[in-house]
Every structure is written in C-alpha cells, then in structure tokens.
Amino acid sequence: MKKQLLAIGAALCLLLTACSTSQPAPQQSAPQQNTPAAPEAKQPEAEKVELMISAAASLTDALTELKASFETEHPGTTLTFNFGSSGKLATQISQGAPSDVFLSASKKDMDGLEEKQLIDKATRQDFTGNALVLVANANGTPAITSFEELNNPAIKHIAVGEPETVPAGRYAKETLEALKLWESLSGRMVYGSDVRQVLTFVESGNAEVGVVYSSDAVISKNVKVLATAKPEWHKPIVYPGAVVAATQHGDAAKAFLTYLTSDKGKEILKKYGFQ
Question: What share of the chain is helix, strand, coil (3-state, %, to 5)?
Fold first, then answer.
C-alpha cells in the first residue's frame, strides 16, 4: 500500500512539473523606433531672367520709371536698357548684338529688321506716338516763335538729330523740306547723335534752337517750346515695338510688351509727354 502511495505521489509531481513548463513565456514588446519625418519637398525657384531692351533715347525717362513697377509685378525678371538712336540700335541688332526687345522711334528702322526676319513679326505693335517741337533755352530770348522763321539771321545754330540714324532728325528734315528751308539752313545745322544730345545742345547754349520731341521738352526745365510742327509736315511719329527673333527669353519679352501697352504702361508714357 505504501508503495502505491509513493507511486501516486511521484505521478502527481511529474504532472505538476509538466503543467508549469507548458506555460507560455511572457512576450516582450519590441522597442519602438522613431521613424524620421520625410523632408519637405523644395519648391522650384522661379527662373531669373535679365531682359535687354534696346530703346530709342527719347524713351529714357519713361522706361526708367516703368522698370520699377514692372520688376515688382514680375519677380525674377530684371530689365536692362540700351538707349540710343533707333537707327544705331537697329544696326547693332543686325550685327548680332544681344537684345530681347526693340523699341523704335520710327517705322523705318523696325521695317528694316522685319525685312531681315530679325524680329518676331507676330509681336510687333505700335505702342505710342509723339510730336515734333521747336525749342530754345529757357533763360534766353529767342528771336523767333515758329518753324517758318528759322531763316532769321539771328539764328546761327539749329540743333537737329542726324537724319540718317536719328528718327527725330529725319522728321526735322521732312518738316524743313516741306517749308522749303532745309537747303538754305544746312550751313547752320548742328547734328546730334540722338535726340537727347540735341536737347543738351540747346540746354547748354551751344545752339539757339533745336528740334526735338515733345516728350523731350516735357522732361527738361532748361528749354521752352516755341512751336509744334504740323502733322502734315512730316510722316506720322509712331513708336513700334517687337520681340527680337534671337531672344532666349520669348515669354518674358512678350510679357514686357504686354505691360508696356497696358493701362499702367500708357499712363507712364502719357506722363512723359507721349501721345
């Protein structure tokens, strides 16, 4: 009987041991790892563009003011100007000088580039006009008050632009030819390389009178207008603008022309005496 009790006790011990070893081991949670946040995608920077604007000298003041407002409304685009006589600027473009937009003071110079396919014909448009005026030094007492009186012997020097390259000089020649005065006055002519130099001749007293645009007279406190040429004396004074065919910045160049012909652009041009 004692042996049977010992056997039963041993069996119970074995059963309890088996149950204890069959308990599943407590699971340990894996340590959490911090996943780095994905970097924010960088926004592409706006393309920076520098536009070279070849513009008639008479546009100097108006475009200088327009530059600030245009660049504010078109961040990333910078305007650089090359001012001069329209004829010389057209020659530079013909010879490959870098330019994105051409703003001429005459139809003739723009026509020349269009014939050579050096401008984008589809972008060409007349954006403003002007008038031709006879001016004298503001502090002087001129002996005349009209174009018709330019043959007065008291007038020794008459400043005009070089007719071959300066549109204002070309219009001045047409005016004086219409009045039959060009030949007789040829010995008194003082020629300027652009219309602003003509203005300077009169301001400095190197010429008693000069023929410039009304827009030039508006910006100078040192000259006064004696007379305005009649429109029938010369060809219409229009300013055509166009994108240069060789530009690498076609969209920006077109945006500039659009701004120039917008209400804001027209307002600035009118402020400086353009029509």
Answer: 45, 20, 35
User: SS3 for 104-172, per residue?
Assistant: CCCHHHHHHHHHCCCECHHHCEEEEECCEEEEEECCCCCCCCCHHHCCCCCCCCEEEECCCCCHHHHHH
Confidence label for 132 from pLDDT (cuts 50, 70 and 90): very high
What three-state secondary structure class fits 41? coil
Residue 106, marked binder: no
- Specify the pLDDT at position 17: 46
The reply, when asked if residue 168 is annotated as ligand binding, is yes
Mean pLDDT calculated for residue range 64-86: 96
Contacts of residue 10, defined as CB under 8 A and 6 or more positions apart, other chains included, come to none
Name the superfamily (CATH) of residues 132-233. Periplasmic binding protein-like II (3.40.190.10)
Fold of 49-129+237-271: D-Maltodextrin-Binding Protein; domain 2 (3.40.190)
User: Considering the entire predicted model, what is its pTM?
Assistant: 0.79
Query: How far is residue 77's CA from residue 71's CA, in Å, rounded to a whole number?
Result: 6
CA distance 150 to 233: 15
> Taking Cα atoms as reference points, which of 97, 12, 33, 59 lies closest to residue 218?
59
Find where tokens 């475009």 sit.
63
Whether 243 has a binding-site annotation, put simply, is no
Q: Is 50 exceeded by the pLDDT of residue 96?
A: yes
From-to residues of CATH 3.40.190.10 in the chain: 49-129+237-271, 132-233
How many Cβ atoms from other residues are within 10 Å of residue 270's Cβ? 13
- In single-letter form, the type of residue at position 180 comes to K
Tokens at 69, concatenated: 């407002």
